[in-house]
Description:
By secondary structure, this protein is an alpha+beta fold. The protein has a domain at 53-145: Immunoglobulin-like, CATH 2.60.40.420. 14% of the residues lie in helices and 32% in strands. The strands form 3 sheets. It has a 5-stranded mixed sheet with strand order 2-10-9-5-6, with no helix packed on it. A 3-stranded mixed sheet has the order 1-3-8, with no helix packed on it. A two-stranded antiparallel sheet has the order 4-7. A hairpin with a 7-residue loop joins strand 9 (127-132) and strand 10 (140-145). The termini are far apart. The model is unreliable at 22-29 and 34-43 (pLDDT under 50).
Amino acid sequence: MRRWFTLPTLLFALALTVSACSTAKDTGFPAIAASSSTSASPSPSVPTTPVTAVTIIAKSIQWDLKQLLFQANKKITVTVDNQDSAVPHNFAIWADPTRTNKEIYTPTKDVTGVATLAYQIPPLKAGTYYFECDIHKNMNGTVTVK
């Protein structure tokens, strides 16, 4: 009789342990997400190193980057990779988002997708600027120059 009682007790204890281990508990520490090499849409990263060349992707009437970081007093190449088929885009830089101050860089040509075009930006002084596609005002972001 004792053996019959022991087996169900062990199975119950095992089931209880597995159940307890599979339930997420608040430990006070942030959850660790499983890494995935095939993420659907990686979040844009904030640049930390000023550059003299960058590629910005236009897709679904949006830029893939909202923040750019350029080296001060250096010529900059901004390549627009337009992945919107038969849709024109361009790259302009303004002093601020109100666009009431002067346009710092005016594009001379649009790029109609699917295609790429490299814009040559003259040296900029250190500061914060605003960039946008002049055709689609919702495609915009911040340029920091250091």
